[in-house]
Predict the 3D structure of the following.
Amino acid sequence: MTRYAWAVLGLGLWAAGVGGGAGRAWGQTPRPTVELKQNYPNPFNPATTIPFSLGADVFANGHRPKVSLKIYNVLAQLVAVPILQGTGEALDDLELSCSSAEGCAFSAYWDGNVRNTGQQAASGVYLYQLVVDGQRFTRKMIIMK
């Protein structure tokens, strides 16, 4: 037996099945497949890698999504912008491309330094947020010295 929980979110409805799959509201388009994964190592010192993947649907019809990845402290102050591994470009409104029919996996690198100062970030909890065409995904990480 599948039980459903219904909720009203804004103007749309959604249903989540307990013991079954999740559904979406009628008339809503499915969200692109984006996965922000846990950084590793975590906790870390002094550097970390942040993996994420974008499904093929994100790149449909030759679309090149604008992607940003930023690291914030718990006061929501911008601490750093990691670089995309393989290119060394800062992940700040970077247009990515993918030629795979299944989508692509990417990883970002943060050396643990605070932007504009070059000093190592202090021990503590930090949030990293991936933004893909305006859609936000957030996780937390820990620097431990």
